[in-house]
Amino acid sequence: xxxxxxxxxxxxxxxxxxxxxxxxxxxxxxxxxxxxxxxxxxxxxxxxxxxxxxxxxxxxxxxxxxxxxxxxxxxxxxxxxxxxxxxxxxxxxxxxxxxxxxxxxxxxxxxxxxxxxxxxxxxxxxx
Amino acid sequence: xxxxxxxxxxxxxxxxxxxxxxxxxxxxxxxxxxxxxxxxxxxxxxxxxxxxxxxxxxxxxxxxxxxxxxxxxxxxxxxxxxxxxxxxxxxxxxxxxxxxxxxxxxxxxxxxxxxxxxxxxxxxxxxxxxxxxxxxxxxxxxxxxxxxxxxxxxxxxxxxxxxxxxxxxxxxxxxxxxxxxxxxxxxx
Lengths: 127, 188
Known about the structure:
heterodimer, A: alpha/beta, Rossmann fold, 5-stranded parallel sheet, 5 strands, B: mainly alpha, Helix Hairpins, 2 domains, elongated
């Protein structure tokens, strides 16, 4: 199954530079419908307004972290099946295990390259 | 300097003095006072050596400002490099030579933007030096005064608890603790 390049993607990161990097990588992969939020609270509001095909989120943000966002998403009947990739500098095993238990679909440690992100998106979105 | 003489009691007189009611001798009392006086003397010297005003008024604000400048410079350079890179992606030209000339012109702008690293490196070196000074003085103070740490304030305790609950560990010093391959294996 080919990737649906038209699916809306939500990028969540408090560093605008990282948002810009991920946006450019997604553009390079062919995705055009990309929105962003600077923390979990803003992301949750956007997720309730629009149906996203994928969330790519950082972990360490204020006031709501990516981990909390993930738990909110998985606890919400309308959002629970939304694919979720964590892209973060948090590389401790306890973080990876906690994210896995909370229902994350994939996990990438920063820094990463376009090919890594593409592989993750393909794995999560079933290409 | 606080001494037995300044306290108005000589050691001989103190030793000969009758014990006050309650059992404690005057000699013991004087000895305690002398000990306290010596401790205060050491404490004053240690506080002076700490040069807290210089740290508060000079070194720490300098470190704060330098790190702020580093953050600004790195953000500015990153934005500039990304702007140029995005510009390169958008370059169009009918001829290979024309395309090459445009790309080269942009690439040299990336080289220029990378010059930030020299300046930020020097700024960070100043901060590292300042932190080394603070560490040395605090370490000396803690040793001389035999400081015991008090309880952390509520705000700090809340912040620490949040970090522990939400696993906010931050980047590891020597690269990722868990290699990406191991993470991938967990999700395969």
